[in-house]
Design a protein that fits this description.
Layout: H1 9-62, E1 74-77, E2 80-84, E3 99-102, H2 115-125, E4 132-133, E5 142-148, E6 151-156, E7 163-167, E8 172-176
Parallel strand pairs: 4-5
Antiparallel strand pairs: 1-2, 2-3, 5-6, 6-7, 7-8
């Protein structure tokens, strides 16, 4: 009998089949991990945004609710001056002191927001914001739009359309996952 070294053809085929079965079982798990990472990403950005909104409001409260020359609520938050919500007899119930846009640059009046104001809010409230646009999406991570005059919606542009919405009348930030 010959003294042979190595594997037989049958042994190699069995190993290849086993590796194929393992790959088929593991692949869906890796795909799911990517979706979970994108969900976690938008939840993290939304959490940072909510924290920044509340921090700007807290700074405004701590400074004694400052106003500009027109009587509008404003706050200088981290070197950027924001216009804030203000209750009036015209707008009904609006919680005061939440950012609506940059003072003198973007946004509407009082509790009103615009598409450009939504972009400015994300870019200026967050210290290291993801890229955001309200126009044609190129490489930006988020698309921003004022869905109503009082809400900004930020939609993730990678994969599923996960989004979060900021309501300036209450300061709430709500995440919507596209499952």
């Amino acid at each position: 009998m010959k003294n042979s070294k190595g594997f037989t053809l049958v042994e190699l085929v069995v190993v290849i089949v086993v590796l194929g079965l393992l790959a088929v079982a593991a692949l869906p798990r890796f795909i799911n991990v990517t979706d979970q990472a994108k969900e976690a990403s938008i939840e993290g950005v939304a959490g940072g945004f909510a924290t920044a909104v509340l921090s700007a409001r807290a700074q405004w409260e701590a400074e004694g609710r400052p106003t500009n020359d027109d009587g509008d609520y404003v706050v200088d938050y981290d070197g950027t001056e924001f216009r804030l919500t203000k209750s009036t007899t015209d707008n009904g119930f609006v919680r005061e002191g939440y950012p609506t846009g940059l003072q003198g640059i973007s946004g509407g009046q009082g509790e009103s927001v615009t598409d450009a104001g939504c972009v400015d809010l994300m870019e200026e409230l967050l210290q290291n914001p993801p890229s955001v646009t309200n126009g044609t999406v190129n490489d930006e991570k988020y698309f921003a739009e004022a869905e109503t005059s009082t809400t900004c919606t930020y939609t993730q542009q990678e994969g599923k359309e996960h989004s979060f919405t900021y309501d300036v009348t209450t300061g709430s930030v709500t995440v919507s996952l596209d499952n």
